Each structure stands twice: as structure tokens, then as C-alpha cells.
């Protein structure tokens, strides 16, 4: 997927929100978009998702796309289950697979009991779970998340973290905005920084781990155990059966807490600062 000379403004004489953006987003990319309020983050995400068209330049190679907006239109006259099933069909699933996927994603987010509830009657938190679940139906090649974690409980944030890792590992592109600077920290992550006083963004094609100190956590798994869902960091199997996790320093305590709370708990062999790349 490529953006060539892309710009966006509202109205023929309006100010440019974005301008002269050249950007490649290959498969398997996790791209974080950063910038102050009003810098054009949501505008860029809407362009990537195809919701808005660029005022200048062009976007080519866009794969099938799923988009989780900042504000979910919860007033749609459908139940949560029917809405997710419909979106599954839009993403190319058959009727049975879409219905099954709707149930499974609601269960994963702890909202299975609300499958038959009209969207307009859901709480804000449950509405956000449905909004995120619709973006995860099927296997889109581009997943665009505009502050999708906002309003989710901790367990659901972990589910979404794990789903993002799965999508990227499977070759999809994930582009996201989130106000938590630690979100998916330690993951291989390119950063697109939008300036407050310029419509021309700067693209940092580097792992986020290179921008802040990282830690190596070496752990030994209990027999037959798999890494807990939502675990921060990048796992690397070692020759003796242990696993080394590369984690941004701010997420170290969260990582250790998840590992020690697992049943059975994982054995922590060592925690050391990773060499600077």
C-alpha cells in the first residue's frame, strides 16, 4: 500500500490538514500515528481506511480494510450479534462463519450475553467492544484503529493487543492512534509523527524499542503452557526451552505481573536491560 503526494483539506479554500505525504505501508507493518490534537491523526486514518478521499495525491494498493472509528454509531437499529454478523459478511465470510465469528468475538471480549441486545441499549464500554469486534471479523489486510482501546476494560485491552499482534504476524497492516504512549511498546513498530504547525509529517522508520530503553525478560514455561494472551513484548525462543521477551521498560512490571499471575505461574529467570540497537 502506498500514499503518493497525499493531502487533505476541507473545502477548496480551506487550510491543508495534511499535505505532500509519501508513505509505503508493506504487509506485516505495525504503524503508530502520533501528534498533538488537531495535527490530522484522525484525518489520516480516515484516508487510509477509504472513508475520505484525498484532496491531492493518490493512495494505491489498499487491501480489504477494517476500520474502528473514534466514535461508534451505536444508534444503528440492529442487535450486537446481527451487526457483527452483517460486518462479517461484508468482510467476505459466509453466513454461518460470520454468525460464528460474531459469537466468538463477543465472548472473547466478555460481551457474549449482549448478542441479542440492540446497539442503542448497550453501555458505552460494551458498545466499544462491539466496535472493536467488527474490525476483527474476517481477515482484512489493513486494520485501522482510531483510539480503539479507549473505553475498554483491562482484559479487553489485552484481547485487542493480542489480536493486533496476530494480525501483524499474519502479514496484515495495522495502523493505530492511541493516547497511551506505552500501547504496544516493545513491538516492532514504525512511527509516523504529525506536526502541529506543518501539514508535512515526518516518518520514523524504526522500531519503537529504539526510542526508549528496553528490557530482556527470560522466562521458563510450565509444562505444556503457552504465553498468556495480551502479553507485552516480542517473544524469542531460546535453545534451552526458555523464552526471552523484549519489552519496553515501562511495560516490564505489567509483563511480570501477567506471567506470575498465570496458572500455573511462569518462572522468571532473569530481567536485564537490553543492549541499545
What does this entry look like structurally?
The protein has 277 residues and is of the alpha/beta class. It has a domain of 61 residues. It has six helices and 13 strands. The strands form three sheets. A six-stranded mixed beta sheet has the order 5-6-7-3-8-9, with helices on both faces. The protein has a four-stranded antiparallel beta sheet with strand order 11-12-10-13, with helices on one face. A three-stranded antiparallel beta sheet has the order 2-1-4, covered by helices on one side. The longest helix has 16 residues. This is ABC transporter. It holds the Pfam family ABC_tran. It comes from Streptosporangium nondiastaticum. One of its GO terms (molecular function) is ATP binding.
Average pLDDT, rounded to a whole number, is 85
User: What structural class do helix, strand and pairing data support?
Assistant: alpha/beta
Order of helices and strands: EEEHEEHHHEHEEEEEEHE
SS field, number of helical segments: 6
* Beta-strand share of residues: 25-35%
Termini, distance in Å? Answer: 28 Å
Low-confidence stretches: 205-211
Radius of gyration: 20 Å
Q: Please count the beta strands (DSSP E, at least 2 residues each).
A: 13
Main β-sheet, spatial strand arrangement: 5-6-7-3-8-9
Portion of residues within helices: 25-40%
Tell me about the biggest sheet? 6 strands, mixed
Principal-axis shape equals: globular
Keywords: ATP-binding, Nucleotide-binding, Transport
GO molecular function: ATP binding; ATP hydrolysis activity
Domain ABC transporter: 1-221
Protein name: ABC transporter
Amino acid at each position: 500500500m502506498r500514499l503518493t503526494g497525499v493531502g487533505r483539506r476541507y473545502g477548496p479554500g480551506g487550510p491543508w490538514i495534511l499535505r505532500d505525504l509519501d508513505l509505503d505501508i508493506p504487509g506485516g507493518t505495525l504503524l503508530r500515528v502520533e501528534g498533538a490534537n488537531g495535527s490530522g491523526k484522525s484525518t489520516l486514518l480516515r484516508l487510509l481506511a477509504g472513508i475520505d478521499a484525498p484532496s491531492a495525491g493518490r493512495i494505491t494498493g489498499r487491501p480489504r480494510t477494517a476500520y474502528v472509528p473514534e466514535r461508534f454509531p451505536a444508534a444503528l437499529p440492529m442487535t450486537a450479534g446481527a451487526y457483527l454478523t452483517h460486518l462479517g459478511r461484508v468482510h467476505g465470510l459466509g453466513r454461518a462463519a460470520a454468525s460464528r465469528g460474531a459469537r466468538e468475538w463477543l465472548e472473547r471480549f466478555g460481551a457474549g450475553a449482549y448478542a441479542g441486545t440492540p446497539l442503542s441499549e448497550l453501555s458505552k464500554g460494551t458498545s466499544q467492544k462491539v466496535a472493536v469486534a467488527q474490525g476483527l471479523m474476517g481477515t482484512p489486510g489493513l486494520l485501522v484503529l482510531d483510539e480503539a482501546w479507549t473505553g475498554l476494560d483491562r482484559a479487553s485491552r489485552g484481547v485487542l493487543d493480542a489480536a493486533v499482534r496476530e494480525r501483524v504476524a499474519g502479514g496484515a497492516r495495522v495502523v493505530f492512534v492511541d493516547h497511551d504512549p506505552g500501547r504496544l511498546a516493545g513491538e516492532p513498530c514504525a512511527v509516523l509523527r504529525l506536526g502541529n504547525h506543518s501539514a508535512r509529517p515526518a516518518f520514523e522508520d524504526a522500531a519503537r524499542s529504539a526510542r526508549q530503553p528496553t528490557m530482556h525478560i527470560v522466562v521458563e514455561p510450565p509444562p505444556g503452557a503457552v504465553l498468556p494472551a495480551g502479553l507485552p513484548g516480542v517473544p524469542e525462543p531460546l535453545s534451552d526451552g526458555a523464552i526471552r521477551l523484549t519489552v519496553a521498560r515501562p511495560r516490564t512490571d505489567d509483563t511480570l505481573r501477567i506471567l506470575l499471575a498465570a496458572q500455573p505461574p511462569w518462572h522468571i529467570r532473569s530481567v536485564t536491560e537490553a543492549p541499545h540497537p
